[in-house]
């Protein structure tokens, strides 16, 4: 139930974001969702893509520093309190949310949120016991293609 995410380290300068995006596009690798965080000197482009292993090799071959990490995509009702329910389920567990971002797509009144937990396996187990569903890469691809 975990997804592979690429973290690409970029200089914080004009044009730096477009280079890895163009490479992936040219190779026919679809970006399913992304988040960009920056500091004064560098940025981290976090990507969930259709073929993370191939994308990682391509980016590294072209001089990018890339890290592969595991994230969890959670289905959340698109209503007030949807995110709070996820956080409430984890409350008191000691599991830390390192960061999170969202997909732009909805499916049957639900959104998808991407979480990086310090202990993803325990988080999945706890969330599952609260009837909060994680989405695997196969299901994600189906949803994004319609």
Query: By CATH's scheme, which homologous superfamily of the largest domain applies?
Result: ACT domain
Top CATH class of the largest domain: Alpha Beta
CATH topology of the largest domain: Alpha-Beta Plaits
User: Helix- and strand-based class?
Assistant: alpha+beta
CATH architecture of the largest domain: 2-Layer Sandwich
Mean pLDDT: 92
Number of helical elements: 5
Cα-to-Cα separation, first versus last residue: 20 Å
Describe this structure in words.
This protein has 146 residues and is an alpha+beta fold. It has 2 domains: 2-70, VC0802-like (2-Layer Sandwich), CATH 3.30.2130.10; 71-140, Alpha-Beta Plaits (2-Layer Sandwich). It is built from 5 helices and 7 strands. The chain has helices at residues 18-26, 52-61, 82-90, 120-129, 137-145, and strands spanning 2-11, 31-38, 42-49, 65-77, 97-107, 110-117, 134-135. Strands 1, 2, 3, 4, 5, 6 and 7 form a 7-stranded antiparallel beta sheet that branches. A hairpin with a 2-residue loop joins strand 5 and strand 6 (110-117). The longest helix is centred in the middle third of the chain and has 10 residues, at 52-61. The two termini are 20 Å apart. The model has no long low-confidence stretch (mean pLDDT 92).
Note the main attributes of this structure.
146 residues; alpha+beta; VC0802-like; Alpha-Beta Plaits; 2 domains; 7-stranded antiparallel sheet; 32% helix
Architecture blueprint of SSEs:
Layout: E1 2-11, H1 18-26, E2 31-38, E3 42-49, H2 52-61, E4 65-77, H3 82-90, E5 97-107, E6 110-117, H4 120-129, E7 134-135, H5 137-145
Antiparallel strand pairs: 1-3, 1-4, 2-3, 4-6, 4-7, 5-6
